[in-house]
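Sat 14:20. Reprocessing the chain from the morning session after the first attempt stalled halfway. Input below, unchanged.
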Amino acid sequence: MKESEIIDIFKKSGALQKGHFELSSGLHSEQYFQCALVLQYPHYSELLCGELARHFAGRGIQAVIGPAFGGIIVAYEVARHLNCRAVFAERKEKELTLRRGFALGQNERVLLVEDVVTTGLSIRETKELIDASGASLEGMGAIVDRSPAPLKLGIPLTPLVKIPVETFLPEDCPLCAAGKPITTPGSRKK
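Finished this time. Tokens:
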């Protein structure tokens, strides 16, 4: 798929939003990718996650993991395409962890996926879980990489769409200075 086709899907589903947003990282932005509005449609989930899975086909992936909440559907659907199991990491007392009986085995070949990446914090934390388990991280993918600069994750991130979006520290935010009301749509608070 072309990036323009993916952006069209985000626009059609209302998932590419404009306004004044406080991101999960605590940064502010004028643009927000609400992947849940895309992923609520099974045909879009299948299409986008199938495209992401193709990047990792043939690598012997045994499990796909994503951080909650955004990575849950992505991990499940990519795993379905790769014919392996899907797990997710979630927060317990602000720390990302494996719960619900999920575990990663020693040397298990794991793919880490996310819906949208901005600062890479959730991916870094999930990578730490994988490393601590002794599993083998075989790749990282995302539907959207909106990071303003390349992330230093130790392994390449493969996004379907790379759209750097300007972000602001709250104290330097021109949207705050202009008095624009803020929305906090993310699932993780700083």
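The first strand starts at residue 16 and ends at 22.
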